[in-house]
Write a structure and sequence with these properties.
single chain; 395 residues; alpha+beta; Jelly Rolls; six-stranded antiparallel beta sheet; 14 helices; globular; binds 2-oxoglutaric acid; binds fe (ii) ion
């Protein structure tokens, strides 16, 4: 009884640096509940070009709404990692049946690496310094939202120097991101999309696009997504992380627990005997932990950093590198951003999933897309219209 109480108290304390993060989300929910207008450019609901809409309608006949990430009743609370895997297969098969794969093919070594480890450095996709510098200059001249993603902001965008004094993160909305040079064409890179499609077993949907600053940590405390967690947006997700500033281990690295992305992989690194030395107050259950328990932790796995360190210390990799470095990760695997100590970091993320839309999953209005007439570098193909439908209006 006493132990249980002490565990709860410990968890509450452990979570304290996450309260501002959860508080902001709660405030956004309250705003939405009271029908306050979003503070970012938005659309009431996405309308798609006719061909894409027809395909989505066919998918509706094959996939029940609770398994479709673009439906408000989508259930991301699968009962186990095995259930998630089973649903992933089912949904991918249906998407494949409707959309096909368009002969896209990824590189085999990278696919192996993704499957075995959960993340891979895409060396041949590295952006040149000239490209990253042009992108950086563009963003330095735009105001930022004092938020980690634009649709969770509680304020309108403001000058970066104001935001960096007070906030751990600052970000841009989709319209601003896509207005930057070079970014759009990267999103439909056939090798990257092919790799994602091979991993999923179907053509992906671009489900989330974000570009944000991680500012130098004020009190050296990890905030929000700088604590270990899983991203649980769909039955399968992959995220491209593209550094737009130079990063080092202490300045802008992303930490990933190798092999934590699926069950067969985690069993390769899970050591039962580490239960023997696990401090009692770190154990969330009253029994020895098993590998599959690491997929069932509450709050998307937030708040268990010391538990992960105990079991997986030797498998936490820090991913960093020169500006332009591109990494593809299965972000269901346990990961975090490391709070920068001396130098801020600008990171572009591009998430692909089976059917999910990130704003639908958090019940806020979708960010405004860019119109196809504003992007000259992307081919107007059926595949591109489907993949990019949440960020580009092809009507
Ligand atoms: O900042 C990072 O490297 C990770 C961000 C992240 O995990 C998230 O936003 O969910
Ligand atoms: Fe994350």
């Amino acid at each position: 009884m006493l132990l249980r109480l002490s565990k709860k108290i410990r968890y509450v304390i452990e979570m304290s640096s996450l309260y501002p993060y959860f508080m902001k989300r709660l405030m956004v929910k309250i705003r939405t509940f009271f029908k306050r207008r979003p503070l970012y450019p938005y659309e009431e609901s996405y309308q798609f070009d006719r061909e894409t809409q027809e395909k989505l309608d066919q998918m509706k006949d094959l996939i029940p709404p609770q398994n479709r990430g673009d439906s408000p009743v989508f259930q991301a609370n699968w009962s186990s990692v095995f259930e998630r895997q089973r649903l992933a297969h089912q949904v991918a098969e249906s998407v494949e049946q409707v959309i096909g794969r368009n002969h896209l093919k990824g590189e085999l070594n990278s696919l192996e690496m993704l499957r075995n480890i959960g993340c891979v450095l895409l060396q041949n996709k590295k952006l040149s310094h000239k490209t990253t510098d042009q992108i950086l200059t563009y963003f330095e001249n735009h105001k930022v939202y004092p938020s980690h993603v634009a649709h969770f902001t509680l304020h309108r965008p403001m000058p970066k120097k104001w935001v960096e004094e007070k906030e751990p993160f600052g970000c841009y909305d989709i319209k601003t991101i896509l207005g930057a040079p070079h970014i759009v064409s990267f999103l439909t890179d056939p090798e990257v999309v092919g790799l994602v499609a091979d991993y999923f077993g179907c053509l992906p949907t671009l489900s989330s696009l974000n570009l944000f600053w991680s500012f130098v940590a004020k009190k050296k405390i990890a905030q929000g997504s700088q604590r270990f967690h899983r991203d649980v947006n769909d039955y399968k997700t992959l995220t491209l992380l593209i550094n737009l500033t130079d990063t080092t281990a202490d300045d802008g690295a992303h930490a990933y627990i190798e092999k934590s992305h699926d069950y067969p992989a985690i069993t390769e690194i899970f050591q039962d005997n580490l239960n023997d030395t696990l401090p009692k107050d770190l154990n969330p259950l009253n029994r020895r932990l098993r590998a599959d328990d690491f997929f069932k932790l509450p709050l998307n796995g937030y708040g268990f950093d010391r538990l992960y360190e105990h079991f997986f210390r030797n498998h936490i990799v820090k991913i960093y590198g020169e500006k332009g470095t591109v990494v593809l990760t299965d972000n269901y695997g346990i990961h975090r951003g490391i709070p920068p100590q001396r130098k801020e970091r600008l990171l572009l993320w591009v998430s692909y999933s089976l059917t999910a839309v990130d704003t639908v999953s958090v019940s806020v209005k979708s960010q405004q897309r860019i119109h196809r007439s504003q992007i000259k570098t992307v081919d107007d193909t059926a595949a591109n219209r489907y993949i990019l439908r949440n960020i580009v209006d092809f009507q």
